[in-house]
Amino acid sequence: MKKKHLFNSLKVLLFSLTIFGCKQEAKPKPEGYLRLEYPENSYHIQKTDCNFQFEKNAIAQFQKERENCQYTVLYPSMKASIYLNYKQITNNLDYLLKDAQKLTYNHTVKAEEIIETPFINPNKRVYGMFYNVTGNAATNIQFYATDSVKNFVVGTLYFYAKPHYDSIYPATKYIEKDMKQLLETIEWQ
Description:
Layout: H1 2-20, E1 43-47, E2 52-57, E3 61-64, E4 70-75, E5 80-88, H2 93-105, E6 111-121, E7 126-135, E8 141-146, E9 151-159, H3 165-184, E10 187-188
Antiparallel strand pairs: 1-2, 2-10, 3-4, 4-5, 5-9, 6-7, 7-8, 8-9
């Protein structure tokens, strides 16, 4: 009998706490958004040993990778790099163009869309293509530039993380401006 009385008392207590315990209505929390702030883009001329120069963002570091005209523009705080590869044209322009395009279109498996933007600057003899690859591709931005006679450069953006497009989007948009600036300011020497 004592157990039954104790059990009934517990039921009454739990019921009372459930009914009278919450005096405020539960309100949903507002959605939170990640806010990433990057410094304003500031550019200066970057010379190379390989027949070209360009403007790069002052926050990025520049290093030569090897003796064969490969360079890296590093963004340590964003864990990203732009890899630049310069080739001299020696009757192989078709091969270089196809190779650059193949590099981009190898990402069609993971890409949602590949947007091509032609670049033409006849005053500086710079012609090329700027690729914006949306989706979880290994690289979201690529370009190539050439004078069609002697010089050819390929630029590719990589992040040091598994690609999740929505997560790297803010950094990708920031570096995209830098890559467009790089392409638009290439000068052959």
